[in-house]
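Q: Hi! First time doing this. I have a protein sequence and I read that you can turn it into a structure. Is that right? Here it is:
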Amino acid sequence: MLWASLLLANLPSDEPQRTEALRGLSTWCLQFTPRVAVVEPLSAAPAVVMELEASVRLFGGKRKLVQRIKEECPDLGVSQLAWAPTGLAAAALARSGVSNGFGKPLEQILDTLPLESLASVAEHRAVLVRLGCQTLGQVRALPRGGLSRRFDGKLLAAIDQAYGLRPEAHDWAELPDTFESKMELMSRVDLAPALLFVARRQLLQMSAWLAARHCGVTAFTLKWRHDDMWAKTPGDGGALTIRTAKPSRNIEHLTRLLAEHLAKVDLVAPVSDLHLLADEVHYFEDQNLSLLPDANQIGESLTLVLERVAARLGPDKVLRPAVTEDHRPEWMCIWQPAAIKQARGMCRTVDITQPTFVLKEPLRLAMRGHRPLYQGPLQLLVGPHRVEGGWWHRVEEDGEVATRQVARDYWIAVNEHAGLLWIFQTRLPGDEAETAWFLHGTFC
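A: Yes, that's right. Below is the predicted 3D structure, encoded as structure tokens:
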């Protein structure tokens, strides 16, 4: 069996905060295995243990799994990580500063550990020291009958479970239905970008929670509370909501997005607490990897890059086209911020041929007699197609918005120099008798 034990550095002394910290670490562990538990939670150094034997193949082998856990643990505030064949043995090794429980037979490794490595043994340390015991091996060498009569059954049970002589029984952690993480800062923070150091730990927990639920997040909120020593005039705190174009649990991408938004925040008072919530969660489809490597998969996707650009420059600086159900050519397609979700419904389209590109403003054409000119005389091929706008057609005139009745006759025209063009003929405002030709689009 492969067990891992994790100890948190600077564990809060306050009971609710202590429980929240252990719960957050347990949530992170649940992405690897459902067999996660807090061992001896009332002791001075409670440990979070997880049984990983059944998950080794899923994560690409023991070496890759161990390496990944080692790389992410420092960001979670883990001070000691240990591996052993049993959960209690891993916890005892972690408390003693030993990481490898597989280098020698388990008995030889555990026999040298001090009494404080197991909480059930440490409770009777004063009596055991008077008996001449300093290590677990010396306690195990005492007559079992005398141990069971003189001490409670927990001492002998803990030793047997640590050495693998008795099955372990744990209260397994459960994955919460929703994610939220509350964390008190060790020191007050005056600059918003500095909040990222602690927020990344919360993002790691959220990413693990999403992985365990096979989901991704499209919106999450980071809230902060100001120090109670400050006056209430600046407010109790602030909040920042981050949105993504598609479900994601990529920790690096989410961290960069949060960093871009925090860089634009000015704190009005020092921050003492952080609160992270997953607002919008959706099912996440894992990528099906090909047997042969694909060069197109190298690098980040365009969506991730555009999200970071929008976070840095502002959502109105990154636009995408959206089709609207409107018969007027200028309004068939509009540009809107990329973060706005597009409707899934299909828009009805007209049956006539539409140009590839439409000019932002129609270009008035010169005329020779009654024929329009554009790099030479134009020959009318297909048309006319009448497009009208009524009271809802608004235009700006002299800085004011006015409505206008518009009627245009669209044609497809051509000449040897300009190619296929989309032009229309309309009456000029103020002179119903005069008409003019305009270029409105081109065909590829």
